[in-house]
Specification:
The protein has about 400 residues and is an alpha/beta fold. Helices cover about 45% and strands about 10% of the residues. The two termini are about 25 Å apart.
């Protein structure tokens, strides 16, 4: 590693940098303005048109999808897809990168930092592809590798460095004394001491997913805020279904912001200034139409951080999940559409069905987000997964393959 003085920036840690960022880029559509209301980094799903849609409904800070550091450097096609497009409507913005090689991650971050307000290291992805690529939540279990990476980046980046983490899992069933909160907080302390500018804590381990997901551990996030909140801002992530959860999480954790992922995928107006509970004023068909128009303006595959038409189709699947549980023809049609004309025709058909049965927007509720909470919903989801090619497990694996260009060497 080179040690020349010219590569060192030594950006000081500013406890108020998130607050200043929000004031510099105010969102009048936000329900509250003194806290960050954050769109999480989501592979193939926190694409540019989706981020803008969320901002129109109150989000005041967004993360890009995870950007693979090595591929950003090596692949022109990948750069075309993942280079951040400067759009005034898409600020403030933090780019999330993955990787464990300090020099590669730094080079990738240097490409991105002129166009974003911060760089985030992915230490949250729980998928097997992250284990093989030596990044994501598995980095938390390789403390020396993670701290070496952070300590290399912090003095060299020109923008603040963030780390998104989970709780540390107990990977040894025989170790009955392993204390998840204690072990996690000890690692977070080392990250803070290494000079990071922001910590986002997902209050679950990498083992908590699918039917085993459980509730996010807000109490441990609160302990982290008590321990480190005077030094850096901290965001809470997990178990945010609606704005009542936002308020409750802020009350319990005293965090500087709330990050949401899956619930936003189904219903972006969670953070909207016009309350959407107990009755909605924004319907899922409206969200579909608005997203499609934004996707036409900002195609996900061209600097929009998405995978061709698959990204668009997957968003529509999330928005219309409730309809698809009863209308199997609609579900199959959405899976099979190949272009915008076919998609808009499918949306027209769904709208006619709504009109025919007197559909009530006010009565709409989350469906995809709660699929693991209700046994009936889980059974429908399992059926969905076996009869289509566009559901969760396929999305996780196929999206990673499309995004990362599987090359057979296991290094993603």
């Amino acid at each position: 590693m080179t040690k020349s003085d010219s590569e060192f920036c030594n950006l000081p840690v500013d406890r108020q940098w998130i607050d200043k960022l929000l004031k510099r880029h105010p969102n009048p559509n936000s329900r509250i303005h003194n806290k960050a209301l954050v769109v999480a980094p989501m592979v193939d799903q926190s694409d540019l048109p989706f981020r803008i849609l969320c901002r129109q409904y109150g989000a005041n800070l967004c993360f890009t999808p995870m950007i693979h550091s090595r591929l950003l450097l090596d692949s022109a096609a990948y750069r075309e897809k993942f280079m951040v497009k400067v759009v005034e409507a898409d600020r403030p913005l933090i780019a999330q990168v993955c990787g464990s090689d300090p020099e590669i991650v730094l080079k990738a971050s240097r490409i991105l930092e002129p166009f974003v307000d911060g760089i985030d290291i992915n230490c949250g992805c729980p998928q097997g592809i992250a284990r093989r690529g030596n990044y994501g939540a598995f980095l938390l279990e390789k403390e020396d590798v993670l701290l070496r990476l952070v300590r290399y980046l912090t003095p060299r980046l020109r923008v603040p460095l963030s780390v998104k983490v989970r709780l540390l899992p107990n990977i040894d069933p025989e170790d009955k004394d392993f204390d998840i909160p204690k072990a996690s907080l000890a690692l977070y302390s080392k990250l803070v001491d290494s000079g990071i500018h922001l910590l986002t804590i997902h209050g679950r381990t990498r083992l908590h997913k699918g039917p085993l997901i459980g509730h996010s551990d807000w109490e441990t996030i609160r302990k982290a805020v008590d321990m480190f909140g005077s030094k850096i801002p901290i965001f809470a992530n997990g178990s945010i279904e609606n704005f009542s959860d936002v308020e409750e999480c802020l009350k319990i954790t005293n965090a500087d912001g709330i990050m949401s992922s899956e619930s936003l995928l189904e219903f972006p107006p969670i953070f909207f200034r016009i309350p959407q509970t107990p009755t909605r004023t924004v319907g899922r068909m409206q969200l579909c139409r608005e997203y499609v128009e934004l996707a036409k303006q900002y195609p996900p595959v061209k600097m929009g951080q998405g995978s061709k038409f698959k990204t668009i189709r997957t968003h529509i699947h999330r928005f219309l999940h409730a309809d698809m549980q009863d209308d199997h023809q609609l579900r199959q049609t959405i899976v099979e559409v190949k272009n915008m004309d076919e998609l808009e025709a499918a949306l027209d058909s769904c709208q006619k069905s709504h009109d025919a049965r007197g559909h009530s927007v006010a009565a709409e509720r989350l469906s995809w987000y709660v699929r693991h909470q209700q046994s009936e919903e889980k059974e429908a989801e399992l059926e969905d997964e076996t009869t289509t090619k566009n559901d969760d497990e396929d999305m996780k694996d196929a999206s990673c393959q499309v995004l990362f260009g599987v090359d057979g060497d296991g290094d993603y």
